[in-house]
Amino acid sequence: QEQLVESGGGLVKPGGSLRLSCVASGFTFSDYYMSWVRQAPGKGLEWISYISSGGDTIYSADSMKGRFTISRDNTKNSLYLQMNSLRAEDTAVYYCARRSTFDVWGQGTMVTVSS
Amino acid sequence: ETVVTQTPLSLSVTPGQPASISCKSSQSLLHSDGKTYLYWYLQKPGRSPQLLIYEVSTRFSGVPDRFSGSGSGTDFTLKISRVEAEDVGVYYCMQSVQLPPYTFGQGTKLEIK
User: Fold this and answer.
1) Does residue A21 register a pLDDT over 90?
2) B41 in contact with A at a CB cutoff of 8 Å?
3) CA-CA to B51 of 20 to 30 Å: which in A8, A45, B65, B89?
């Protein structure tokens, strides 16, 4: 079945970096644009970034622009989120989601930013 | 940025009774292509969000017909005709008419009495 599996989360110190991955299966990954969405503990959903199917169009939330970079490798059915200059407020579960409808979600990967 | 506001923020409903959640946007969600880009999601406890309704009123595959969406322009509603125990969780509306960003409502927590 159609599935997204995130990985790469963990504990990182403020100012550090992490690269999250999302591997797709059960559908033709290269046909779909993709997004990252996050959820801080006990809080609501916050969209981070979007990338078109071919990777040529990217949109990002202003609050994360310049620190977070979305990318994809269609040969590996993979979506990525490079996160730099991490702050305590970036602590959250990070989800990848398919299309603008967000019709398929991964299980999420937890990122904790703490010294 | 289009702001999306949900009410109420919490709801306690007896099984078998109806429930309704409102979602209001700061700008019209009607796109020039004629579609209205308003979505509803349910996040069950400990789970990832799941799509319930897209483009205001179309139920996603597998979503029970007790869920319905309505509205236009800036005012939208999600209705559950008869709440069941499995419907507990947090409901979010989201708009994608104007990117960036996609914006979500604050969420409405539904619990069973």
Assistant:
1) yes
2) yes
3) A8
